[in-house]
Write a structure and sequence with these properties.
The chain has 550 residues and is α/β, with parallel strands linked by helices. Helix content is 40%, strand content 19%. It has helices spanning 17-26, 30-36, 56-70, 83-93, 121-129, 152-159, 164-173, 188-198, 204-216, 222-228, 240-249, 279-291, 296-301, 333-347, 374-388, 419-431, 443-456, 482-492, 512-522, 536-545; strands at residues 45-51, 74-80, 114-116, 136-140, 144-151, 179-181, 235-239, 255-258, 266-267, 270-273, 350-357, 365-366, 372-373, 394-405, 408-418, 463-470, 500-506, 525-530. A six-stranded mixed beta sheet has the order 15-14-11-16-17-18, sandwiched between helices. Helix 18 (482-492) links the parallel strand 16 and strand 17. Helix 15 (374-388) packs across helix 20 (536-545).
Length: 550
């Protein structure tokens, strides 16, 4: 009824029920909200809601009932929309090309007032790269936990390993398990599965090993992966709802669900009012959200749990399913971005020229890294990054300062070479990175030369990139000025042969404006800054995962 407000559940980005009125007032929507809190309305509000396909029927039924109660005040159209398609469209509107998703037709997001994707990770991924994307998130509408989907005959043996940490060790060591998942960069179920296995171990080597095993059996869609379970895939990281739907469709080929202990990732179906929605629609969308609080039976029929993780009446629970799975805290960008960066490096072929600053300032100690120097921290990051790359990658190694080869500020240590055949050489080159006494920072000349070198031997079908690590601004009086660098790089640029320019700055002495100018001239890439040099490992993975500006 008008004027009554149920408490809203919290989800990953913003908001509690108490904050709803604040968000509405802050957005200039007070008049609309006040009107919707009264008994009458002046005009009919048309709301457009996009919802993940599995929850759309339940949302549509509730929205229709709410519209009938509101009379002429509101009409709601609920469209079933694949979250990846909407995310690509929203990202495109905000200048973001999400890794693995790309950009979509903007019509997918055109006119959407509220969005219920299958996971809040979509909202986090877009907002972490697009500062202008700030939806108002009014809690979770439903949940579905991550499970290990296996043929029923295999479930008992797998369930004897109850702890997820032990299961991850088995996924790594037991080749007969043949684990698989859906491509996590474009499917929230795959990303939830990746979060589940990554969160169960502190061992970087084990995480990489399990990711490689999962990548060997990955699929582009859930439907394709489900068809493989019991054939080429022994078990699949999917959602409980996927298992329920599969068993309903194919009762003669049922799957069992093994539940991770503890639960580390769920699909949380957040309700997000899109940024820029006019005040009256935002107020109506807030009221609609309240009406979605009583969906228990409809959710159960769809194979989904309530927002608190409980199964409603009529829920077709897989064998051994717990009555309630308490949703874990929603992951933020700090958890998602490095994980996707690792996945991208492991699964996607690439061609990279890594360029390391060896100016004298790289000798500075990093207190937060146990007293290692900046150069040593960079070496450690580079070695860890190299360990992620398989034989489909090619990598080169340059170092730069001033007067490295005569008056030239950069030196080629290893040309861009296949990791499959030159891994020892590449590792050794990283191990020899040594700061130059009294060396300054010939950044501009080096950036131009590196960009030209990668473009010259550009290869189709892979990511061609330059990754520069530096702790200072350009300091090379006899070299290029920023205006000259920008002009020359812009002239070199070829949209048909894009080269991503990734610059990882560390410390506080960098000139971000300089770095941004270089990246802009290259046409693709990004600047990533670790004010604490000890954090450059995380920054490297963020840079690999991001498609900001690409």
């Amino acid at each position: 009824m008008p004027g009554r407000h149920r408490p809203l559940q919290r989800t990953g980005l913003i908001v509690t029920a108490a904050a709803v009125a604040v968000a509405v007032v802050a957005g200039g929507a007070y008049a609309g909200y006040q009107e919707w809190s009264s008994e009458g309305c002046a005009t009919t509000v048309q709301l457009q809601v996009a919802a993940a396909p599995e929850i759309a029927p339940a949302v549509r039924a509730a929205a229709d009932a709410w519209s009938r109660r509101e009379g002429t005040c509101a009409q709601v159209a609920v469209a079933a929309a694949q979250p990846a398609s909407v995310a690509a469209s929203v990202g495109g509107k905000h200048g973001v090309n999400l890794a693995g998703v790309g950009t979509g037709a903007q019509s997918e997001a055109e006119g959407i007032d509220a969005w219920i994707p299958d996971s809040g990770t979509w909202l986090v991924r877009i907002s972490s790269e697009a500062p202008g994307f700030r939806p108002t998130v009014l809690g979770s509408v439903a949940t579905s936990p991550t499970v290990l989907a296996v043929p029923e005959a295999s479930a008992a043996a797998l369930a004897r390993t109850p702890k997820m940490a032990d299961l991850v060790k088995r996924l790594y060591a037991d080749k007969a398990l043949r684990p698989g998942l859906v491509e996590p960069s474009r499917d929230a179920t795959g990303l939830a599965g990746l979060l589940t296995v990554a969160g169960a171990t502190d061992s970087a080597a084990l995480r990489v090993g399990v990711m490689r095993a999962l990548a060997a059996n990955s699929s582009t869609t859930r439907k394709d992966l489900l068809l493989k379970v019991g054939d080429t895939v022994g078990l699949a990281l999917l959602s409980e709802a996927d298992v329920v739907a599969h068993n309903a469709r194919t009762p003669g080929n049922r799957l069992a669900a093994v539940y991770p202990n503890p639960a580390t990732a769920v699909l949380d179906y957040p309700y997000a009012i899109m940024p820029g929605v006019d005040p009256e629609k935002a107020a109506a969308a807030t009221r609609l959200r309240e009406a979605l609080g009583g969906l228990s039976a409809d959710l159960a029929r769809a194979g989904l749990r309530g927002a608190d993780g409980s199964a409603g009446t009529g829920f077709p629970a897989p064998q051994g399913a717990p009555a309630k799975v308490v949703p874990p805290p929603a992951p933020g960008a700090a958890a998602l971005t490095p994980l996707l960066g690792s996945w991208t490096a492991i699964t996607q072929p690439g061609r990279m020229l890594a360029v390391f600053d060896v100016s004298g300032s790289m000798k500075a100690k990093v207190p937060t890294a146990g007293g290692l120097t900046r150069a040593e921290v960079t070496q450690r990051t580079a070695q860890q990054g190299l360990a992620l790359l398989d034989g489909r990658w090619s990598v080169g190694n340059w170092t730069f300062s001033t007067n490295m080869v005569g008056t030239r500020p950069w030196k080629e240590n290893v040309p861009i070479s296949s990791v499959a055949t030159h891994l020892p050489e590449l590792r050794a080159a990283i191990g020899r990175i040594t700061p130059k006494d009294g060396g300054d920072t010939g950044l501009f000349d080096t950036a131009l030369a590196a960009y030209a070198a990668v473009k010259k031997d550009w290869k189709p079908g892979v990511s061609n990139s330059v990754v520069i690590y530096t702790d200072g601004k350009n300091d090379n009086p006899s070299g290029l000025k920023i205006e000259e660098l920008v002009a020359r790089m812009t002239k070199l640029r070829d949209p048909g042969k894009p080269v991503r320019m990734i610059i990882i700055g560390m410390g506080t002495a960098i000139d971000r404006a300089e770095l941004e100018a270089i990246v802009k001239a290259s046409g693709s890439g990004g600047v990533f800054v670790a004010t604490d040099p000890a954090k450059i490992g995380e920054i490297f993975l963020e840079a690999i995962a991001s498609r900001r500006g690409a």
